[in-house]
Write a sequence for this structure.
């Protein structure tokens, strides 16, 4: 009897592991009762999105509140402490995120879906108004707004994670230690191509006096200010180019479900926010995509379709860089660079034990953006320095900036790049069979913004707004 019971438990856990990457789809009827018609509209939308695999998984839809979406930053507010004005601003941001997600979900739908969207918006605005005015509903929202982490607890239980953890820690230390040692000492085996931002339509590059803030303390960046900041801090890229895998471009998915890639000099951008000593700081995210990571040998567990590089700039109150960090779109290889005059290491943090990988400082000599050097094939950061266009050599290409949101919804090949679990199907790596006990779903596979688990030891996310406060100190 005991053995059978454990077998049932083991099989249940295995089933949850295999299906545990399900998306945060609309899990319940709306908590806020508006009208029977609105209940029907929400039900119609939910059933259509779920059955047609249209759910946009970039943000979390709190159970019972399908007219809101939140990310880890919005979820970091203590909703019970917000003033009425702060509630309005918070709800406005959460509703806007939901509306944007709906616009991507509706793409490619039947003609009637545009009317469904209009009905959904009308009902959502009524629900948001009622939610902001009724304290008991607000408390229910506060209880359900936390974003689940991107790790699978059943996988960790089934994989006996505590026993595996020391081996994973050792292996991660070896791999990341080698990358840190390689930084600044890399010997290229192929030629370099350099890509610089196309600043033909620069909107202005003056110093930022200050950011306007809403009642929550969140910087309000209008379109022109946002564009100016992204242009000002856009890095140049020096890419060792061995073959087509090292040429940047645009990932997509065809109507037949197959991944496609169009070589094109484009870098995708995304705006996020972090917290630092009570202040909210903007973060500029730059995403470079490649067609894949080629195999170096017959059993290369890291090779597969699509690869990329994500560079993030955390800005101070006057638009100056305070910190740089980077990952690949799988969430792997999280590394940090600290610019001169920016954040500094905290004496109370054991960076080796925490597995926080610091590449060093980045003296830019007054220049606004760095030149980043990436290796061929694995696209690792092997160098960073200041740059001037006259110093870059002959083979220079200009690249344009596009919003990362452009990859949500239907891609340029007609299919949806991201699945409703936030992963990019077809980019799976063999390493997932070794690392599944860590709880990271499809380790090594490419994924959507907001789904980047960045540590195989413990639980840490790239979009955690508290990372800076946890590991660094403000400029002295």
């Amino acid at each position: 009897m005991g053995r059978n019971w454990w077998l049932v438990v083991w099989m249940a856990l295995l089933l949850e592991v295999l299906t545990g990457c399900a998306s945060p789809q609309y899990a319940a009827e709306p908590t806020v009762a508006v009208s029977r018609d609105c209940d029907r509209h929400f039900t119609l939308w939910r059933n259509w999105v779920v059955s047609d695999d249209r759910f946009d998984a970039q943000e979390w839809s709190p159970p019972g509140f399908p007219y809101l979406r939140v990310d880890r930053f919005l979820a970091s507010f203590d909703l019970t402490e917000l003033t009425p004005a702060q509630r309005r601003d918070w709800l406005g941001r959460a509703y806007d995120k939901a509306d944007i997600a709906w616009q991507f979900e509706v793409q490619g739908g039947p003609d009637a879906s545009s009317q469904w969207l209009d009905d959904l918006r009308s009902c959502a605005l009524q629900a948001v108004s009622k939610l902001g005015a009724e304290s008991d509903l607000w408390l229910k929202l506060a209880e359900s707004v936390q974003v689940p982490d991107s790790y699978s607890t059943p996988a960790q239980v089934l994989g006996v994670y505590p026993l595996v953890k020391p081996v994973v820690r050792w292996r991660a230390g070896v791999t990341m230690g080698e990358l840190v040692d390689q930084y600044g000492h890399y010997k290229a085996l192929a030629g370099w191509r350099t890509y610089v931002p196309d600043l033909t339509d620069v909107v202005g590059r003056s110093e930022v006096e200050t950011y306007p803030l809403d009642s929550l303390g969140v910087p309000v960046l209008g379109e022109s200010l946002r564009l100016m900041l992204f242009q000002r801090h856009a890095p140049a890229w020096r890419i060792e180019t061995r073959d087509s895998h090292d040429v940047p471009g645009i990932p997509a998915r065809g109507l037949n479900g197959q991944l496609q890639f169009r070589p094109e000099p484009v870098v995708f951008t995304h705006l996020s926010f972090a917290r630092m000593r009570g202040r909210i700081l903007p973060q500029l995210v730059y995403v470079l995509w490649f067609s894949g990571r080629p195999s170096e040998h017959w059993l290369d567990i890291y090779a597969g379709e699509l690869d990329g590089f994500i560079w993030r700039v955390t800005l101070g109150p006057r638009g100056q860089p305070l910190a740089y960090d980077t990952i690949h779109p799988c969430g792997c290889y999280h590394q940090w660079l600290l610019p001169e005059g920016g954040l500094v290491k905290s004496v109370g943090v054991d960076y080796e034990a925490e597995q926080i990988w610091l590449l060093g400082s980045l003296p830019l000599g007054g220049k606004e953006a760095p030149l980043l050097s990436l290796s061929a094939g694995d696209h690792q950061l092997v160098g960073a320095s200041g740059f001037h266009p006259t110093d870059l050599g002959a083979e220079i290409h200009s690249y344009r900036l596009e919003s990362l949101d452009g990859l949500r919804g239907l891609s340029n090949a007609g299919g949806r790049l991201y699945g409703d679990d936030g992963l990019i199907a077809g980019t799976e790596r063999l390493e997932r069979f070794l690392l599944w006990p860590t709880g990271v779903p499809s380790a090594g596979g490419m994924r959507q913004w907001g789904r980047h688990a960045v540590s195989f030891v413990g639980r840490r996310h790239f979009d955690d707004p508290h990372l800076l406060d946890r590991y660094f100190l403000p400029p002295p």
Q: What stands out?
A: Confidence is low (pLDDT under 50) at residues 15-22. The chain is about 30% helix and 20% strand. Residues 38 and 122 are 9 Å apart (CA to CA). Residues 84-106 form the longest helix (23 residues).
